[in-house]
Specification:
homodimer; 323 residues; TIM Barrel; 15 helices; 12% strand
Chain lengths: 323, 323
């Protein structure tokens, strides 16, 4: 997560010349920064450079990306505002994403066919930004909508799920080998509300993608998944993302053997010396065992991270998992 | 949590005249706002009005409290900065807190002897503010200190734990009937790091208070406790706080019967209509069962909350737990 990003000097060099939105909307540049970490570290898969909120403007929700985090022009909070939202055709709303994917597929083919992961924000997560107007600490507006006006909340989540489903299918049509659904804020509710809101609409997206493009692996990631382990596997995804605040062995015990896991090193652990990084990689590989495990950070690389420590992690994963 | 606060018109009326720090440092006013929710809703216990960072200036860390959240003058990040910090005597560093407690005890005696809960920020939580300089999303500076300079991190946590222990004992000497240790950001680390950092230093505080004033109930609250349930009970506290993102029945299964639980309604659920609030209260009472349960929100009351919904919650708890 955040393979491409501000921790890389090559990324910062591109970012000095253009805004985040210009970068995300320019296939040449988005392709370039997606490839930077692949060329630098030789990761086993590339993940599209984009943003989880990139489809919001096509729905009728303006969004900007200053350094302090995304900002929504007019937050969506009323039944009328929700009714006015569109479910856009991604090929016309965000054609640059599909162009980026096509460029990437060609570029990755010449790099030994490294697979490409496409992604989207999950419905509840996108809802929090649309409703709060940006990031939030307590999600008061979101929870007010969920609990005081559940019909409107469901109407909004339904539109977000349809947007998200169509968007992921379009990414697969353009060449994505796998898709990942990010529920970065799926973890802000009680277990009962997790089933009612984030999980329900993530399932709809996953079912839609599965029906439209069977066989394409789907990853579902809930940041802060520990409280929901009894329900997590029912998402229908092939792979469950695991953040760093839970033991991946506990996750395996609770979700069973029918699903692969992706995770779960604390991104902050990359501040540790390489020997300690290696010890932590070994610990996670040991806990994950020998059933379907994709080593990954539990969340995005922090901008303060030393790229040499990322390299130390990759080396440790390769050497230790070869044993 | 946040019984006294911006959701109450009476609190906002006081707050219009003074800054947060003036309020917290004025025994008369702090006593007044502590009593407001007791007189309004008849809670079973009062909790001191103050802030978890109130002892930082006595350690040598300046802190301000604008509406956007606490701001530290100069963040503490180096060995030299940590070495320069004091472990203050709370009776001279924050005498106004003990004065507030004495006023409160007299005022609560005339209200049928409602018990008073004192509190402090737990060491890891205070460390995050001291090191980041305020609130944070990723805690990069904190994790850099924890993982790149663990000796310095331990030195800082040791000073924070000693400050916190002495402060809670002073509150008990002044009249607090019970003390609560808030680890609001204890939940930002992996289970192994939870044992190594937040839990280890919370235990030290709890042991210190226990030894100095045996028999006084101690509550330990980790916000986002779900990943740490196997270790949570080893804190030594009499009561474990439970946030809303986990089933309180699961917590009971995992921590055993030797400890009471406090929680765990989503503060956002107070946006729901009173009938739904009642249903959620009933659900939590049912899950908590008949062993040591203090009904509470899983975190603080949000400022957007309708006080009548707080009243509906209290009524539901009283009526349903009487059955």
């Amino acid at each position: 997560m955040r393979q491409a990003g501000r921790y890389l000097p090559a990324y910062r060099a591109v970012k000095q010349r253009v805004s985040f939105l210009e970068l995300a909307r320019s296939p040449d540049l988005a392709c370039e920064v997606t490839l930077q970490p692949i060329d630098e570290f030789g990761f086993d898969a590339a993940i599209l450079f984009s943003d989880i909120l990139i489809t919001l403007p096509g729905m009728g929700i303006e969004v900007e990306f200053p350094e302090t985090g995304p900002k929504i022009g007019t937050p969506v909070r009323t039944a009328a505002e929700i009714a006015a939202l569109a479910v856009p055709d991604p090929t016309t709303a965000v054609p640059f994403v599909m162009d980026t994917i096509r460029l990437l597929k060609a570029a990755l083919a010449s790099r030994g066919g490294v697979p490409l992961i496409g992604f989207a924000g999950a419905p509840l997560t996108m809802m929090t930004y649309a409703v709060e107007g940006g990031g939030s600490k307590e999600y008061a507006h979101t929870k007010s909508l969920l609990f005081a006006a559940p019909e409107e909340a469901h109407a909004l989540l339904d539109k977000l799920a349809r947007t998200c489903g169509a968007y992921l299918v379009a990414q697969i049509e353009a060449g994505a080998d796998c898709v990942m659904l990010f529920d970065s804020w799926g973890g802000i509710v009680s277990p009962g509300d997790f089933r009612e809101y984030p999980l329900r609409y993530a399932k709809r997206v996953i079912e839609h993608v599965r029906a439209a493009r069977p066989g394409v692996p789907i990853i579902y990631f809930v940041n802060g998944c520990a409280p929901y382990l009894d329900d997590y596997a029912s998402s229908g995804a092939d792979v469950l993302g695991v953040d760093w605040r839970v033991g991946i062995d506990e996750v395996r015990r609770r979700v069973g053997d029918g699903v692969a896991l992706q995770g779960n090193l604390d991104p902050g652990a990359l501040f540790a010396p390489p020997a300690e990084i290696r010890a932590r990689v070994a610990d996670i590989l040991g806990r994950a065992g020998d059933r379907g495990h994709i080593f990954n950070l539990g969340h995005g690389v922090m901008k303060e991270t030393d790229p040499e420590h990322v390299r130390a992690m990759v080396t440790a994963v390769r050497e230790l998992s070869a044993k």
